Amino acid sequence: MESEREITFTLYPNPEGIVTISCPKCNFCRLMEAKFIKRASEGFNIRCRCGEIFKARVEFRTHYRKEVKLGGIYKNLRTGQQGKVTVVDLSLGGIGCKTFFDHDFQTGDSLEVSFNLDDKKTSTVTLKVEVVRTQDQFVATQIRDEYCGKKDLGFYLMK
Prior knowledge:
It is a single chain. The strands form 3 sheets. The protein has a 6-stranded antiparallel barrel. The protein has 2 domains: 8-58, no CATH class; 66-158, Thrombin, subunit H (Beta Barrel), CATH 2.40.10. It has one helix at residues 150-158, and strands at residues 8-11, 18-22, 29-33, 44-47, 53-58, 66-76, 82-90, 95-99, 110-116, 124-135, 138-143. It has 159 residues and is mainly beta. Strand 9 and strand 10 (124-135) form a beta hairpin.
């Protein structure tokens, strides 16, 4: 029996990577390891033992990510290389940015990135981050240390 529901339920794994799947019709619950669910972040269909079919997806991010366009500068702490970046997304867990020129970042490199928020105070945020992925001029990073502007960044992300 095909479900008439168009809602896709978002599931959040607990710290051990387990999601609780609860049927919207009969409330039957089961636990599953998120890493074993095919296409978990894209979305998938679930058939409950009561026959209900519903859609779900797993959200692996632990922090809200906001799309932005903020100018900044970086310093590669391994090579000393410096340059300009545009921060394109940020969260309390990391930032994504684009460099203006080719870079030689490697996964695991430590960077110091400084940028101004577009809030009323144009707050300056300085982050020590670790490169987790690069693709062309895009660099995905994860925040590694305590950083200046944490309170300002937290308030900024709440808007």
